[in-house]
Write a structure and sequence with these properties.
519 residues; alpha+beta; 5-stranded antiparallel β-sheet; two-stranded antiparallel ribbon; 16 helices; 11 strands; 13% strand; binds adenosine-5'-triphosphate; binds magnesium ion; manganese ion binding; manganese; nucleotide-binding
Amino acid sequence: MDELIFDNTFLRALPGDPLADAVPREVRGALHTTVMPTPVAAPRLLAWSREMAGELGFSEQDVQAPAFAAVFAGNALLPGMQPYATNYGGHQFGHWAGQLGDGRAIALGEAIGRSGHRWELQLKGAGRTPYSRSADGRAVLRSSVREFLCSEAMHHLGVPTTRALCLVATGEAVLRDMFYDGHPQLEPGAIVCRAAPSFIRFGHFELPAARGEQALLEQLVDFTITRHFPHLTGDVAARRADWFGEVCERTARLMAEWMRVGFVHGVMNTDNLSILGLTIDYGPYGWIEDFDPDWTPNTTDRRQRRYRFGQQPAVAYWNLGRLAQALSPLFASAEPLQAGLQRYVDAYVAAERAVIAGKLGLADWRDGDDALMAAWQDRMRDAGIDMTLGFRALAAIDPRAPSLAPLADAFYDEARRERETPALLDWLARYAARLAGDPLPQAERSARMRAVNPRYVLRNYLAQQAIERAEQGDAAGIGELLDLLRHPYEDQPGREAFAARRPDWARDRPGCSMLSCSS
Ligand SMILES: Nc1ncnc2c1ncn2[C@@H]1O[C@H](COP(=O)(O)OP(=O)(O)OP(=O)(O)O)[C@@H](O)[C@H]1O
Ligand SMILES: [Mg+2]
């Protein structure tokens, strides 16, 4: 375990807070504060990612040793680890919120993986930092299970994401008012060790910009480019312009991926958008079940629905606008920033077309295919079809004799199924006609479709079942789900139940369809 090498560039290259304690405060002129994780009573390993452990050179024996749980609960450090919390701001639900920062996330350092890639390791729920404001710096088991599982599930789906190394129970209770209704309860606490090339967010740039700390902003921009976008060349002005454009493009591709798999982030504040285009902060996220572009899992956003599924690409664009505004002091004119934002639009259109062609099994996107997709989404919404099952079933449609048989298990409501059958058959006929003019042989088409339309996703109720088991002391359900979600595109004999549509009991149940921000 001691062989892991750390090279803590963020800490070394960027200005830090002269104070090193966890007293809540405004931290100016600095991007990080040295702060130790607060030790916990009884660390116990609940789950771990085989792939991430392998990348970091941890053997199964290492992982199972008590020292591993101690390190990733924040009770001990490996040589080379230098804990710190970072300083960022953000727009929350459309409003500038000022300094936020890592209030419960503590970075341990940047480890060099077996592949040569660098991984910033970060504990979420490791205790108070100067950025905790009035909160406790901790995380509950339920939100930590969800973060651990979804980080790895998204990776296996091929969606850019921060990763998770392990999940450790703290043996301590955390007080949470889950529905903000005046009924706080003690819940088991946990810590996830996340891993990513960097956790830099849009909000890291917004905060120094809002404070007029231009030199700090410039340092952060140039550090980000040098460390994380080394392929960009040219003079400083050109590199900065290209960098912003690439951030826009990566964000566009990420949005197309979320829309492809039916992921709703739930809290797309600018402090939760990664500068590397990774999915970051698995809070009150959810997966689309009965197809509804207006759905959001986040109970805090129930009325405004700012972060609803169908709105995500537009919100990302709005967030990039805030980033552009923050960066504007570094540009002689607005033109490069506007060009970058245009790159978002163009990249999103291109990525969306590729997603449409992939999900419908078309050799190439052609004029009219977006309307075909939109019509299918309308049919799924009106008929109450499960998104994952609905798309997966399309691969089994025979274009010479289209029928609804492959969709038999995808409906949530019998009456709506009956009512919408004629419209569905019309759509199938239109789809079959489109396939008739497409060069892909049927077998290849089906295989391609199954490679982009997952069979297994982290359905909200599945995560909730694993959480409830873990809360009862049996963490095995977490590992079982992770194992399933390692191969989301393969039919896994014996595991059909995990692909089934959400059971009725889970429809309106907290944790299954409604998630609280309280975590
Ligand atoms: N229990 C807590 N203690 C201290 N700070 C917290 C706590 N929960 C959230 N915060 C802080 O509130 C802000 C917004 O929280 P948000 O829910 O977006 O993030 P998060 O889930 O804690 O973390 P991350 O974005 O790192 O995944 C962040 O600054 C976060 O650190
Ligand atoms: Mg956050």
